[in-house]
Prior knowledge:
The protein is α/β, with parallel strands linked by helices. It has helices at about 10-20, 55-65, 80-85, 85-105, 140-155, 190-195, 225-240, 260-270, 295-300, 310-320, and strands at about 1-5, 25-30, 45-50, 70, 110-115, 160-165, 170, 205, 220, 220-225, 245-250, 255, 275-280, 285-290.
Amino acid sequence: MNILVTGGAGYIGSHVVRELMDTDHDIVTVDNLQKGHEQAVLGGEFYRCDLADREKLEEIFARHEIDSVIHLAADSLVGESMQDPHKYYQNNVSAGLTLLEVMQKEDVNSFVFSSTAAVYGEPQSVPIEENDSGDPTNPYGRSKLFFEEILADYERAYDFNYISLRYFNASGAHPSGEIGEDHDPETHLIPLVLETALGQREKLEIYGTDYDTRDGTCIRDYIHVSDLARAHILAVEYLAENKESAIYNLGSGDGFSVREVIETARRVTGREIPVKPARPRPGDPPVLIASSEKIREELGWQRNFPDLETIIETAWNWHRNNPRGFSSD
């Protein structure tokens, strides 16, 4: 198939492209490079293009006879979405509608959507299952849940099928060390821990130390980014064969606290990693853990990197060799 990957120069998108390179599919990547890095796109055709540019999108679809879309282009910072919700609805909803419009015009009806655990808000139960109701606590989560509802309406009204993948904490780096996580600003725990290990940060702030958890810090579900990327390929191939829409969680089913992540990173890096307590961030649930039984049973998805230590080892390999991210090259 000819597969279009939007946001393919970003952290998760570049790993999706890298995994697609090991298949027989042809890859076309679209990214406006506001946050992505062209150096991270290791194969296929690349176009610098904003999803709001309908005309250019139509040219790309027609030129490559696209069969399926993996849609990862989005803004994804919770705090920023609270301060600038218009940006999130513009980029995550409006631009997505332009993409869907072009797909309809070009008769492309297979869509894999990068969603998020933020659609659940405060979890009703742990581990979270796909049929738990969504009640997002921020505009980022609401923009993703709203777009999922749009996809469901498209399926009912048109010849259109989709799979929505609700991510938990994507972590690590490609085991080859070719690509890894490079955000500006960085907000994810594991790269922040490793930046502290490298001496790029004086201390790591722990946001909240008196939660009702085993050590007082938040517990999260971490999944290796390459395992996450492979799920997108399974989803594309499943849609091509079965043409049945579905929603799946993508997580490990296990939870690690902030302190446990730091201690594991200390073992992996051999560095001290100084920390200091900080105020909890508004809206941070104490525990977020996913049940991924459904995608294992229906798509046959399995994790190749199931343990936290391996996740951190691959991330450390990337950060140590690329201390300034892709600008280190």
